[in-house]
Write a structure and sequence with these properties.
The protein is mainly alpha-helical and 70 residues long. It has one helix and no strands.
């Protein structure tokens, strides 16, 4: 009876270790995806700023080509 109890407790302990490892890995994967989303959002903002800057430069070049003083 005692050996059966030891085997059962060992099996449960092993299962708990595996479950905790899997949960920690899942949490790490979610953190990675959150970081990727944050970087993607920040990149979009930078792209919009770059696009606005390029439009402003184009407007100035067109004004220069038309002979208009800014």
């Amino acid at each position: 009876m005692t050996s059966d109890l030891v085997i059962a407790v060992s099996g449960l302990a092993g299962l708990a270790v595996i479950a905790l490892s899997a949960l920690r890995g899942w949490d790490g994967w979610l953190a990675l995806k959150r970081l990727e989303l944050e970087r993607a959002d920040a990149g979009d903002t930078g792209t919009l700023i770059d696009l606005a800057d390029m439009r402003e430069r184009l407007r100035k070049l067109e004004a220069i080509a038309a002979g208009v003083d800014l």
